[in-house]
Design brief:
The complex is a heterodimer. By secondary structure, chain A is mainly β. Chain A contains no helices and 11 strands. The chains are: A mainly beta, B mainly beta. Chains A and B meet through strand 4, strand 5 and strand 10 of A and strand 4, strand 5, strand 9 and strand 10 of B.
Chain lengths: 113, 113
Amino acid sequence: GENVEQHPSTLSVQEGDSAVIKCTYSDSASNYFPWYKQELGKRPQLIIDIRSNVGEKKDQRIAVTLNKTAKHFSLHITETQPEDSAVYFCAASIRSTGNQFYFGTGTSLTVIP
Amino acid sequence: KAGVTQTPRYLIKTRGQQVTLSCSPISGHRSVSWYQQTPGQGLQFLFEYFSETQRNKGNFPGRFSGRQFSNSRSEMNVSTLELGDSALYLCASSQTSSGETQYFGPGTRLLVL
């Protein structure tokens, strides 16, 4: 089955700096890659996603890049703010096989004011 | 629309007992997936139900089972509870079973003593 690895496990940045979280996947058939943000005690919430026919997607301060050849994708957060502090999870799935998502182990991001 | 709801929110059980958790998806959503979240393992896929049929199953023992009703509400059952089953159990709903956006519920926190 698919295996998703996520790095780093913890990340601290100064407010205003950028944060980058990287994930690799093993199954070349994976074609949908969402990112979720989970604040302490709350449910995971989708923040951005990318499909395999797109190399990059941006939504305000958040962007995701995908390199299908290398089988890795990254989350970029620019101009970080304290409210960005949370655990971020990447995931991968093969759309044709349904909603079986494989998640990375999470990155705990702390934005220092 | 109302979001995904899960009941109960908290449960304390003892080893050997069984437990049933419930998930009500967003209205109109026909796919419900279940995940186990633990600090060490992250989010691990249990199973997905779509139109009352199990579409996918993760690598969990047979003690973990589920079902879906005609109104798309889903239940998962864990029999013969073990200490290691202590976790946050999250369900997520999607409109279809084609690897698209999943919306998570708040989770049920299960503690096995």
